[in-house]
Amino acid sequence: MYRQVILSLPLSILSIVSAIAHEMTPAYPEFRYSYIEGVSVTRMSLFNKRNDANHYEIGVYTKDWDSVPFASAAKIIEVKHTKRYGFDVYVRNSDLDRVTYICTMSKVLKKTNVPLISTKICSKVK
Description:
Blueprint: H1 2-20, E1 23-25, E2 32-33, E3 39-47, E4 55-61, E5 76-78, E6 84-92, E7 101-107, E8 120-124
Antiparallel strand pairs: 1-3, 2-3, 3-6, 4-5, 4-7, 7-8
């Protein structure tokens, strides 16, 4: 009996975390030329399902999870609970072949005694 409880516990925790996580679309973004010479852009959208987090950090990574330089209107964006926020990600054309993931990670900007779960959602670039 205890074995069934222990085996089902991780699955129930994962379902709770996915229910409170944020969402980012598109799942497979594509870069296109921007108005800036030598730079490409993609449009992303984040939907906040979390009522305990309103700030999200944007990151661009290689297949080995090394950071890739990028530009956006802000590196940390504020998205209120149940709201959607659109943002552009700009990457130099010389770095495009290294880009594999565009991610957002929840940030809690206040001190609290309650344990918090940080969520990181990534889209894989085509």
